[in-house]
Amino acid sequence: MDRGLFREDLYYRIAVIMIKVPPLRERRDDIPLLVDYFLQKFSKAYRKQIHGIAPGAMDRLVSSPWPGNVRQLQNFLEQAVVLADADVLRERDLFVTDHPAARATAAKGLDIEPGLRLREVERRYILRTLTRVEGSRTQAAKMLGISLRALQYKLKAYMEEDGRLEEEALRVPRAQVARTRMSSMEQA
Prior knowledge:
Elements: H1 8-14, H2 31-45, E1 52-53, H3 55-63, H4 69-83, E2 88-89, H5 91-94, H6 100-108, H7 118-132, H8 137-144, H9 148-162, H10 167-170, H11 174-187
Parallel strand pairs: 1-2
């Protein structure tokens, strides 16, 4: 308001009750509660069975500065749940760039740079899975633990956003098409 970036009349319209909430770094006791809440929320949303966080990882989360406050913690945990491959998150699952083995695994698999939007991470993971199963959407859906319909919906959304998808991920190899045609001709 002082710099003229916000209309004063609007400020007084929305400033009915002022609640001062200290930053997360001043409320470290809240972090384990928030972690449990977000893990339950994202485990359910992504249909993953994440049962908790290893003690060392929780200590690290509690001691982190969280300049982005609760929203940063929320996004951090959502990404961890999406990429998790075990039922308990370990320090190396959460802090990928700190562990050489995890960095090497990430380098072989997905190209995930810090600050990448979660939707983009999901898109890359789905396309990588499609490439691995040579374009079979049914197999990809099974590997991803989602329904075929959910996968098709996501692919359609990616098409609408990008106007295209990576060709190699969606293309069914010619040999596979030929095998499918041959087997259908044999059945007829």
